[in-house]
Protein backbone atom coordinates (compact mmCIF):
# COMPACT_ATOMS: atom_id res chain seq x y z
CA UNK A 1 0.00 0.00 0.00
CA UNK A 2 1.42 3.37 -0.99
CA UNK A 3 1.17 6.58 0.98
CA UNK A 4 -0.19 9.85 -0.27
CA UNK A 5 2.44 12.60 -0.61
CA UNK A 6 0.64 14.56 2.10
CA UNK A 7 1.61 11.92 4.62
CA UNK A 8 5.22 12.91 4.16
CA UNK A 9 4.63 16.30 5.76
CA UNK A 10 2.97 14.98 8.90
CA UNK A 11 4.93 14.37 12.06
CA UNK A 12 2.45 13.02 14.64
CA UNK A 13 0.53 9.73 14.48
CA UNK A 14 -2.66 10.12 12.43
CA UNK A 15 -5.56 7.89 11.59
CA UNK A 16 -6.16 7.23 7.94
CA UNK A 17 -9.13 5.99 5.97
CA UNK A 18 -7.77 3.86 3.13
CA UNK A 19 -9.12 2.75 -0.21
CA UNK A 20 -7.57 0.84 -3.08
CA UNK A 21 -6.52 4.16 -4.61
CA UNK A 22 -4.78 5.67 -1.60
CA UNK A 23 -5.22 7.18 1.86
CA UNK A 24 -7.52 9.92 3.06
CA UNK A 25 -6.48 11.74 6.27
CA UNK A 26 -9.27 12.40 8.74
CA UNK A 27 -9.38 14.43 11.89
CA UNK A 28 -11.09 11.70 13.92
CA UNK A 29 -11.57 7.97 13.94
CA UNK A 30 -14.50 6.98 11.72
CA UNK A 31 -16.09 3.58 11.78
CA UNK A 32 -17.81 2.06 8.77
CA UNK A 33 -20.44 0.73 11.13
CA UNK A 34 -22.14 2.17 14.15
CA UNK A 35 -24.65 4.86 14.80
CA UNK A 36 -26.66 6.61 12.11
CA UNK A 37 -24.80 9.83 12.82
CA UNK A 38 -21.45 8.17 12.29
CA UNK A 39 -22.65 6.63 9.03
CA UNK A 40 -23.77 10.05 7.81
CA UNK A 41 -20.39 11.48 8.71
CA UNK A 42 -18.72 8.70 6.77
CA UNK A 43 -20.79 9.52 3.70
CA UNK A 44 -19.74 13.17 3.86
CA UNK A 45 -16.09 12.23 4.22
CA UNK A 46 -16.28 9.76 1.35
CA UNK A 47 -17.83 12.39 -0.89
CA UNK A 48 -15.40 15.10 0.20
CA UNK A 49 -12.32 13.03 -0.48
CA UNK A 50 -13.66 11.41 -3.66
CA UNK A 51 -13.26 7.82 -2.62
CA UNK A 52 -14.31 4.97 -4.97
CA UNK A 53 -17.94 4.06 -5.73
CA UNK A 54 -19.97 2.19 -3.14
CA UNK A 55 -19.17 -1.20 -4.65
CA UNK A 56 -15.53 -0.63 -3.71
CA UNK A 57 -16.16 0.77 -0.25
CA UNK A 58 -16.13 -2.67 1.23
CA UNK A 59 -12.39 -2.61 0.55
CA UNK A 60 -11.87 0.27 2.96
CA UNK A 61 -9.73 -0.48 5.95
CA UNK A 62 -8.76 1.66 8.86
CA UNK A 63 -5.15 1.87 9.92
CA UNK A 64 -2.96 4.03 12.09
CA UNK A 65 0.72 4.68 11.40
CA UNK A 66 3.53 6.29 13.34
CA UNK A 67 4.82 8.45 10.47
CA UNK A 68 7.95 9.62 12.19
CA UNK A 69 9.25 6.05 12.02
CA UNK A 70 8.66 5.72 8.29
CA UNK A 71 11.53 5.53 5.81
CA UNK A 72 11.76 7.18 2.39
CA UNK A 73 10.84 4.00 0.51
CA UNK A 74 7.35 4.02 2.03
CA UNK A 75 6.35 7.23 0.29
CA UNK A 76 5.45 7.91 -3.31
CA UNK A 77 8.21 9.70 -5.18
CA UNK A 78 7.44 13.26 -6.19
CA UNK A 79 9.66 13.06 -9.26
CA UNK A 80 12.71 15.20 -9.95
CA UNK A 81 12.67 18.52 -8.13
CA UNK A 82 14.96 21.25 -9.46
CA UNK A 83 16.32 23.83 -7.03
CA UNK A 84 18.49 26.81 -7.89
CA UNK A 85 18.99 28.45 -4.50
CA UNK A 86 20.55 27.40 -1.23
CA UNK A 87 17.34 28.30 0.60
CA UNK A 88 15.30 25.88 -1.53
CA UNK A 89 17.68 23.01 -0.81
CA UNK A 90 17.70 23.81 2.91
CA UNK A 91 13.90 23.87 3.07
CA UNK A 92 13.65 20.61 1.13
CA UNK A 93 16.16 18.88 3.37
CA UNK A 94 14.36 20.01 6.52
CA UNK A 95 11.08 18.63 5.21
CA UNK A 96 12.62 15.43 3.86
CA UNK A 97 14.52 14.41 6.96
CA UNK A 98 12.72 16.14 9.81
CA UNK A 99 13.22 14.15 12.99
CA UNK A 100 13.47 10.79 11.20
CA UNK A 101 17.06 9.88 11.92
CA UNK A 102 17.11 6.79 9.72
CA UNK A 103 16.71 8.78 6.51
CA UNK A 104 19.91 8.86 4.43
CA UNK A 105 20.83 11.37 1.73
CA UNK A 106 23.31 10.49 -1.01
CA UNK A 107 24.97 13.15 -3.14
CA UNK A 108 26.67 13.15 -6.55
CA UNK A 109 28.32 16.48 -7.46
CA UNK A 110 28.84 16.99 -11.21
CA UNK A 111 29.56 19.69 -13.78
CA UNK A 112 26.90 18.33 -16.13
CA UNK A 113 27.30 16.82 -19.59
CA UNK A 114 26.37 13.56 -17.91
CA UNK A 115 27.47 10.20 -19.32
CA UNK A 116 27.48 6.54 -18.28
CA UNK A 117 30.20 7.22 -15.72
CA UNK A 118 27.98 9.69 -13.89
CA UNK A 119 25.06 7.29 -14.24
CA UNK A 120 27.01 4.55 -12.45
CA UNK A 121 27.62 6.89 -9.51
CA UNK A 122 23.95 7.86 -9.37
CA UNK A 123 22.79 4.24 -9.57
CA UNK A 124 25.00 3.29 -6.63
CA UNK A 125 23.74 6.32 -4.76
CA UNK A 126 20.14 5.30 -5.49
CA UNK A 127 20.70 1.75 -4.26
CA UNK A 128 22.29 2.85 -1.00
CA UNK A 129 20.24 5.87 0.10
CA UNK A 130 16.68 7.03 0.68
CA UNK A 131 17.19 10.30 -1.19
CA UNK A 132 19.47 11.12 -4.12
CA UNK A 133 20.69 14.66 -4.76
CA UNK A 134 22.73 15.57 -7.86
CA UNK A 135 24.30 18.95 -8.47
CA UNK A 136 25.17 20.43 -11.85
CA UNK A 137 27.50 23.39 -11.57
CA UNK A 138 30.36 24.31 -13.88
CA UNK A 139 32.65 25.73 -11.21
CA UNK A 140 34.55 28.83 -12.42
CA UNK A 141 37.08 28.79 -9.57
CA UNK A 142 38.74 25.60 -10.83
CA UNK A 143 39.40 27.05 -14.29
CA UNK A 144 42.40 29.21 -15.12
CA UNK A 145 41.89 32.28 -17.36
CA UNK A 146 43.48 30.36 -20.25
CA UNK A 147 41.28 27.26 -19.86
CA UNK A 148 38.02 26.23 -21.49
CA UNK A 149 35.33 27.46 -19.05
CA UNK A 150 33.13 28.96 -21.78
CA UNK A 151 33.66 25.98 -24.08
CA UNK A 152 32.96 23.36 -21.43
CA UNK A 153 30.10 21.20 -22.83
CA UNK A 154 26.68 21.94 -21.38
CA UNK A 155 23.77 19.59 -22.11
CA UNK A 156 21.23 20.49 -19.44
CA UNK A 157 18.09 19.22 -21.20
CA UNK A 158 19.64 15.79 -21.79
CA UNK A 159 21.03 15.76 -18.26
CA UNK A 160 17.59 16.36 -16.77
CA UNK A 161 16.09 13.55 -18.85
CA UNK A 162 18.78 11.17 -17.59
CA UNK A 163 18.25 12.21 -13.97
CA UNK A 164 14.54 11.51 -14.31
CA UNK A 165 15.26 8.05 -15.74
CA UNK A 166 17.54 7.33 -12.78
CA UNK A 167 14.87 8.38 -10.24
CA UNK A 168 16.91 11.23 -8.81
CA UNK A 169 14.99 13.19 -6.17
CA UNK A 170 16.69 16.59 -6.37
CA UNK A 171 18.79 18.45 -8.91
CA UNK A 172 20.64 21.43 -7.45
CA UNK A 173 21.59 23.77 -10.27
CA UNK A 174 22.88 27.00 -8.74
CA UNK A 175 24.15 30.07 -10.54
CA UNK A 176 27.74 31.30 -10.06
CA UNK A 177 26.38 34.20 -7.99
CA UNK A 178 24.52 31.80 -5.70
CA UNK A 179 27.73 29.89 -4.99
CA UNK A 180 30.04 32.92 -4.97
CA UNK A 181 28.07 35.95 -3.72
CA UNK A 182 31.09 38.24 -4.10
CA UNK A 183 31.61 37.17 -7.70
CA UNK A 184 34.19 34.78 -9.10
CA UNK A 185 36.66 36.26 -11.60
CA UNK A 186 39.06 33.71 -13.08
CA UNK A 187 42.17 35.58 -11.96
CA UNK A 188 42.95 34.48 -8.40
CA UNK A 189 44.33 37.91 -7.50
CA UNK A 190 40.88 39.41 -8.15
CA UNK A 191 38.87 36.83 -6.19
CA UNK A 192 37.27 37.68 -2.85
CA UNK A 193 35.77 35.56 -0.10
CA UNK A 194 36.73 32.26 1.58
CA UNK A 195 38.59 29.54 -0.31
CA UNK A 196 39.81 26.10 0.79
CA UNK A 197 43.36 24.89 0.14
CA UNK A 198 44.51 21.36 0.99
CA UNK A 199 48.29 21.39 1.29
CA UNK A 200 50.47 18.34 0.76
CA UNK A 201 48.43 16.49 -1.88
CA UNK A 202 47.33 19.36 -4.14
CA UNK A 203 50.63 20.64 -5.48
CA UNK A 204 51.83 17.67 -7.56
CA UNK A 205 50.46 15.98 -10.72
CA UNK A 206 47.29 17.88 -11.68
CA UNK A 207 48.28 20.65 -9.30
CA UNK A 208 51.63 21.23 -10.99
CA UNK A 209 49.95 21.88 -14.34
CA UNK A 210 46.86 23.61 -12.94
CA UNK A 211 48.10 25.42 -9.79
CA UNK A 212 44.71 26.64 -8.51
CA UNK A 213 42.60 23.73 -9.71
CA UNK A 214 42.26 21.90 -6.39
CA UNK A 215 41.76 25.17 -4.53
CA UNK A 216 38.65 25.66 -6.66
CA UNK A 217 37.52 22.04 -6.33
CA UNK A 218 37.96 21.92 -2.55
CA UNK A 219 36.14 25.23 -2.16
CA UNK A 220 33.08 24.34 -4.24
CA UNK A 221 32.77 20.83 -2.77
CA UNK A 222 32.96 22.28 0.76
CA UNK A 223 30.14 24.66 -0.13
CA UNK A 224 28.04 21.89 -1.70
CA UNK A 225 28.51 19.55 1.26
CA UNK A 226 27.51 22.34 3.65
CA UNK A 227 24.40 23.05 1.57
CA UNK A 228 23.18 19.50 0.93
CA UNK A 229 24.56 17.96 4.16
CA UNK A 230 24.61 14.44 2.67
CA UNK A 231 25.46 11.29 4.57
CA UNK A 232 27.48 9.98 1.61
CA UNK A 233 28.98 11.63 -1.49
CA UNK A 234 30.11 9.67 -4.55
CA UNK A 235 33.09 10.38 -6.82
CA UNK A 236 34.72 8.58 -9.74
CA UNK A 237 38.16 6.98 -9.66
CA UNK A 238 39.14 8.73 -12.90
CA UNK A 239 39.76 11.88 -10.86
CA UNK A 240 41.68 9.97 -8.21
CA UNK A 241 43.83 12.87 -7.03
CA UNK A 242 40.68 14.92 -6.58
CA UNK A 243 39.24 12.17 -4.39
CA UNK A 244 42.43 12.01 -2.30
CA UNK A 245 42.41 15.80 -1.83
CA UNK A 246 38.74 15.86 -0.85
CA UNK A 247 39.12 12.91 1.49
CA UNK A 248 41.87 14.73 3.38
CA UNK A 249 39.68 17.84 3.43
CA UNK A 250 36.57 16.20 4.93
CA UNK A 251 38.63 14.33 7.51
CA UNK A 252 40.66 17.28 8.73
CA UNK A 253 37.81 19.82 8.58
CA UNK A 254 35.55 17.33 10.39
CA UNK A 255 32.90 17.33 7.67
CA UNK A 256 30.25 14.77 8.58
CA UNK A 257 30.04 13.16 5.13
CA UNK A 258 31.52 9.86 3.98
CA UNK A 259 33.20 9.93 0.57
CA UNK A 260 32.96 6.87 -1.69
CA UNK A 261 35.11 6.31 -4.78
CA UNK A 262 33.59 4.25 -7.60
CA UNK A 263 35.54 2.45 -10.37
CA UNK A 264 36.27 4.09 -13.71
CA UNK A 265 33.72 3.52 -16.46
CA UNK A 266 35.28 2.80 -19.85
CA UNK A 267 34.04 2.34 -23.39
CA UNK A 268 34.63 -0.85 -25.36
CA UNK A 269 38.15 0.30 -26.34
CA UNK A 270 39.15 0.95 -22.74
CA UNK A 271 39.04 4.75 -22.99
CA UNK A 272 37.89 6.31 -19.71
CA UNK A 273 34.55 8.08 -20.12
CA UNK A 274 34.88 11.84 -19.83
CA UNK A 275 32.85 14.90 -20.77
CA UNK A 276 35.93 16.13 -22.64
CA UNK A 277 35.80 13.16 -25.02
CA UNK A 278 33.15 15.12 -26.92
CA UNK A 279 35.89 17.42 -28.20
CA UNK A 280 37.54 14.60 -30.19
CA UNK A 281 36.57 13.05 -33.51
CA UNK A 282 36.07 9.28 -33.77
CA UNK A 283 39.53 8.72 -35.24
CA UNK A 284 41.14 10.60 -32.36
CA UNK A 285 39.07 8.70 -29.80
CA UNK A 286 40.55 5.46 -31.14
CA UNK A 287 44.02 6.94 -30.71
CA UNK A 288 43.13 8.09 -27.18
CA UNK A 289 42.28 4.51 -26.20
CA UNK A 290 46.03 3.82 -26.28
CA UNK A 291 46.30 5.76 -23.02
CA UNK A 292 44.63 2.87 -21.23
CA UNK A 293 46.56 0.35 -23.33
CA UNK A 294 49.82 1.75 -21.96
CA UNK A 295 48.62 1.65 -18.35
CA UNK A 296 47.30 -1.89 -18.81
CA UNK A 297 50.63 -3.05 -20.25
CA UNK A 298 52.40 -1.69 -17.17
CA UNK A 299 49.96 -3.47 -14.88
CA UNK A 300 50.48 -6.77 -16.69
CA UNK A 301 54.24 -6.36 -16.44
CA UNK A 302 54.10 -5.83 -12.68
CA UNK A 303 51.75 -8.76 -12.07
CA UNK A 304 53.94 -11.12 -14.09
CA UNK A 305 56.99 -10.34 -11.96
CA UNK A 306 57.75 -12.17 -8.75
CA UNK A 307 60.30 -9.63 -7.62
CA UNK A 308 60.51 -5.86 -7.25
CA UNK A 309 59.88 -3.89 -10.46
CA UNK A 310 61.91 -0.73 -10.99
CA UNK A 311 60.16 2.52 -11.85
CA UNK A 312 62.16 2.98 -15.06
CA UNK A 313 61.11 -0.47 -16.27
CA UNK A 314 57.45 0.47 -15.89
CA UNK A 315 57.90 3.82 -17.65
CA UNK A 316 59.71 2.11 -20.52
CA UNK A 317 56.82 -0.31 -20.97
CA UNK A 318 54.28 2.51 -21.13
CA UNK A 319 56.50 4.51 -23.46
CA UNK A 320 56.73 1.58 -25.86
CA UNK A 321 52.93 1.73 -26.35
CA UNK A 322 52.70 5.52 -26.57
CA UNK A 323 55.83 6.34 -28.58
CA UNK A 324 54.24 6.04 -32.08
CA UNK A 325 51.56 8.57 -31.13
CA UNK A 326 54.07 10.91 -29.56
CA UNK A 327 56.13 10.81 -32.76
CA UNK A 328 53.06 11.47 -34.93
CA UNK A 329 52.02 14.44 -32.81
CA UNK A 330 48.80 12.79 -31.61
CA UNK A 331 50.05 12.64 -28.00
CA UNK A 332 51.79 15.17 -25.82
CA UNK A 333 52.50 13.69 -22.40
CA UNK A 334 51.92 16.00 -19.46
CA UNK A 335 52.93 13.56 -16.73
CA UNK A 336 53.14 9.89 -15.76
CA UNK A 337 53.08 9.13 -12.05
CA UNK A 338 53.78 5.95 -10.08
CA UNK A 339 52.86 6.94 -6.55
CA UNK A 340 51.62 5.92 -3.14
CA UNK A 341 47.83 5.99 -3.21
CA UNK A 342 47.49 7.96 0.04
CA UNK A 343 50.32 10.49 -0.02
CA UNK A 344 50.92 10.61 -3.80
CA UNK A 345 54.64 10.39 -3.08
CA UNK A 346 56.45 8.99 -6.11
CA UNK A 347 57.80 5.43 -5.84
CA UNK A 348 61.12 4.17 -7.17
CA UNK A 349 60.04 0.55 -7.21
CA UNK A 350 56.90 -1.57 -6.96
CA UNK A 351 56.48 -4.75 -4.98
CA UNK A 352 53.94 -7.08 -6.66
CA UNK A 353 52.39 -8.11 -3.35
CA UNK A 354 51.47 -4.52 -2.41
CA UNK A 355 47.94 -4.67 -3.78
CA UNK A 356 45.96 -1.45 -3.61
CA UNK A 357 48.86 0.69 -2.37
CA UNK A 358 50.08 2.15 -5.67
CA UNK A 359 48.41 4.17 -8.40
CA UNK A 360 49.78 4.72 -11.90
CA UNK A 361 48.22 7.91 -13.25
CA UNK A 362 48.77 10.13 -16.25
CA UNK A 363 47.63 13.17 -18.16
CA UNK A 364 47.97 13.29 -21.94
CA UNK A 365 47.10 15.99 -24.46
CA UNK A 366 45.40 14.33 -27.44
CA UNK A 367 45.35 16.19 -30.75
CA UNK A 368 42.07 16.15 -32.65
CA UNK A 369 42.84 14.89 -36.15
CA UNK A 370 39.95 16.81 -37.74
CA UNK A 371 40.96 20.05 -36.05
CA UNK A 372 44.73 19.82 -35.46
CA UNK A 373 44.77 23.11 -33.57
CA UNK A 374 42.64 21.48 -30.83
CA UNK A 375 44.29 19.52 -28.03
CA UNK A 376 42.20 17.78 -25.38
CA UNK A 377 43.74 16.96 -22.03
CA UNK A 378 42.66 13.51 -20.80
CA UNK A 379 43.52 11.83 -17.50
CA UNK A 380 43.46 8.17 -16.51
CA UNK A 381 44.82 5.85 -13.84
CA UNK A 382 45.04 2.26 -12.65
CA UNK A 383 45.28 1.13 -9.03
CA UNK A 384 47.70 -1.76 -8.61
Automatic annotation (TrEMBL):
Its EC number is 6.3.2.1. One of its GO terms (molecular function) is ATP binding. The keyword ATP-binding applies. Pathway: Cofactor biosynthesis; (R)-pantothenate biosynthesis; (R)-pantothenate from (R)-pantoate and beta-alanine: step 1/1. Transmembrane segments: none annotated. It is an enzyme of class 6 (ligase). It holds the Pfam family Pantoate_ligase. The keyword Transcription does not apply. It catalyses: (R)-pantoate + beta-alanine + ATP = (R)-pantothenate + AMP + diphosphate + H(+). Belongs to the pantothenate synthetase family. This is Pantoate--beta-alanine ligase. It comes from Zygotorulaspora mrakii (Zygosaccharomyces mrakii).
Amino acid sequence: MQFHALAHELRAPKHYLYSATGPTPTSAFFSLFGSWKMRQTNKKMLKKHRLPPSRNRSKLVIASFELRRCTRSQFDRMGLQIFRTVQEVTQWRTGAVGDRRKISIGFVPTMGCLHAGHASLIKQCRESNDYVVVSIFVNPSQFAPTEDLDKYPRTLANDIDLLKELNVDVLFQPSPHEMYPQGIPLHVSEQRGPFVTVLGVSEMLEGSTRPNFFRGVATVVTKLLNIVMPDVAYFGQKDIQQFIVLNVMVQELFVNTKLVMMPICRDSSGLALSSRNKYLCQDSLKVASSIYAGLSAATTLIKEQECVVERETILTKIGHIWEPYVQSGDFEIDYISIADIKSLAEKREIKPQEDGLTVISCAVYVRDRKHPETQVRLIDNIIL
